[in-house]
Amino acid sequence: MERAKVIIHMYTSIDGKIDGEWDGRPGDKISGDYYDDQLFKLGSANANGSNTIVMYAAKGHPDLSKYDGQQIEYQDWVPDGIQSETWDVSYDRRGRAGWERNYFPYAGRKNRAIEVVTKQAPKSYLAFLQSMEIPYLVCGEQEIDFAESLVKLRKYFGIKTMVLGGGALINGAFLKAELVDQISLVVAPYISGDREKKGIFDTLGSFVDQRFHITQMKKLGDGGMHLMFDRD
Known about the structure:
- 22% of the residues lie in helices and 25% in strands.
- The protein has helices spanning 29-42, 50-56, 123-131, 146-157, 168-176; strands at residues 5-12, 45-49, 87-91, 103-106, 109-117, 136-138, 161-164, 182-187, 212-219, 225-231.
- It is globular.
């Protein structure tokens, strides 16, 4: 396979909600810790959409005005000699993530940041990324070419398996692009009941005709469960 394999890895309530008041309660500590522990056992890269990245990993507000007028081409930028055991991939088509350092500490690791953008990202934002020594891949004009990004992630960084942890929109986008190879669900022992919260996939109302079959069911110590599905 020329591209990186994709595993959707999500922590959900029993009714399939990916966040809400149920998350982080004392009664789901075993399941929550297990979810974090499994991530880098599944693959070497943790990937998220821009909403999730801005919420958790890159909360800053860089002043891009000082980078105005930079003569930068819309092409991939990968610093020489960059390497890491684990990576944090940001699917950020407009260049929104406000990185304050070039890595994201998660699951006990310093995961080196990689940005995947389109030509909608301002050149001043690309200059900002270069100043932070954050590599970026330009994949698409208006919308991200996910398949191209997976080929480049394997080519430049040796990423054989990328673990995609949401949000729901990017999960749905990868599903519609037929790029999801496995689904890993850690189910907490709680029901959300919140109709406003997102489920695991948001395909914007489209039915995606793909079939997956279960390959693992593991009961966890707090009553939660880990389920693994492979695509047929």
